[in-house]
Design brief:
The protein is an all-alpha fold and 154 residues long. The protein has one domain (13-152). It has helices at 13-25, 28-46, 59-152. The chain is built from three helices and no strands. The longest helix is centred in the last third of the chain and has 94 residues, at 59-152.
């Protein structure tokens, strides 16, 4: 599921690029690559006298790291903000789905209660009819005995 993002930078190329950079900065490939570059940089400047373009204490390397950090930190914060916004939207959507499921469940419970109430009324009516049927059966039996008694006494 993709959700639109309308944060501080919207869904523009800069925001998407910032997220890609922030994701890349946290990968093992980036860490290994940067480590190799730093080792090569120091080796070239410490060993190869003719190739020294940044002698110890490696001020140019430190400047490169500072520049990288100056750009990486805001890009990472931007990516985190955008992710937090997406998480918030997903949470609201999940909450909405939960509320809808709750409403549906409450509707089902109400329907079941209505049906249960109807069945209870039918059971009570059936019980009442059965009682009346027994009373009428007893009355018919009593009348039959009376008639039988009158006919046999003659």
């Amino acid at each position: 599921m993709t959700s639109e993002h309308h944060g501080a930078f919207g869904e523009d190329a800069f925001g998407r690029g910032a997220e890609r950079v922030a994701r890349f900065l946290g990968t093992p490939q980036y860490i290994v690559g940067q480590t190799i570059v730093v080792i090569a940089w120091i080796a070239l400047n410490a060993i190869a006298v003719a190739l020294r373009f940044d002698p110890y204490p490696f001020i140019l390397l430190n400047l490169a790291f500072s520049t990288q950090a100056a750009y990486a930190a805001p890009l990472i914060l931007l990516a985190q903000t955008r992710q937090a916004d997406r998480d918030k939207i997903q949470e609201l959507m999940a909450e909405k789905r939960h509320d809808e499921q709750t409403r549906l469940a409450e509707g089902r419970v109400a329907a079941i209660k209505t049906e249960t109430d109807k069945l209870t009324q039918l059971l009570e009516s059936n019980t009442d009819l059965t009682r009346k049927d027994e009373e009428l059966t007893e009355q018919v039996a009593a009348l039959t005995r009376q008639i039988h008694g009158l006919l046999t006494n003659r």
